[in-house]
Amino acid sequence: xxxxxxxxxxxxxxxxxxxxxxxxxxxxxxxxxxxxxxxxxxxxxxxxxxxxxxxxxxxxxxxxxxxxxxxxxxxxxxxxxxxxxxxxxxxxxxxxxxxxxxxxxxxxxxxxxxxxxxxxxxxxxxxxxxxxxxxxxxxxxxxxxxxxxxxxxxxxxxxxxxxxxxxxxxxxxxxxxxxxxxxxxxxxxxxxxxxxxxxxxxxxxxxxxxxxxxxxxxxxxxxxxxxxxxxxxxxxxxxxxxxxxxxxxxxxxxxxxxxxxxxxxx
Length: 266
Prior knowledge:
The protein is of the alpha/beta class.
């Protein structure tokens, strides 16, 4: 699997303008904008939509159900494309579970002619053993709570290794669509306790990971580029309040992803 995207220093911050729209697709527990009334607390893809738009790109940000299953979320994504880009194909940039939603959209909802490329970031294409671990230990506790609150939870089952094995069998790549991927690699520190347990589980079963998804599972398509960062840093979340948590701004890396597509003639 080749690793590309090594632009010169003078070029790395330049974001090309693509002819087709870019659609950003969030993962599990995701959102487009998190806020209270007119006040925005956070965007899922931090600063990325604004950076892409500043170069003249048309950017759509999906808002899918945070815990529903892949099939349901893919239908929501299709509704967005039907509404916002009915006559123009798009480029999908999808984080985590959003990459599985996007593959389902392309392969099983008849949208292959409406998608030019799919770039997945930290997507568990082969599942994550952390999901298996969590379901074995927490299902009996959490399922009654989700049922009581009437909150769907199919997403947790859809991310297991067994489900993704079957998903891959039923959801083959489409030859007319270009597939690329990004994986994260992250070594937890004592100041990053939220990643300690999942990273340790993945290290013993799948190898290096971004704290939630292994590099092996995230690798998909024509090539995989590995970024040094945790699962949230792939969407440009930066933890800067302590040196151990400080992670890089990903704007230049997203610029490189777009530049690759521009160089391919898109």
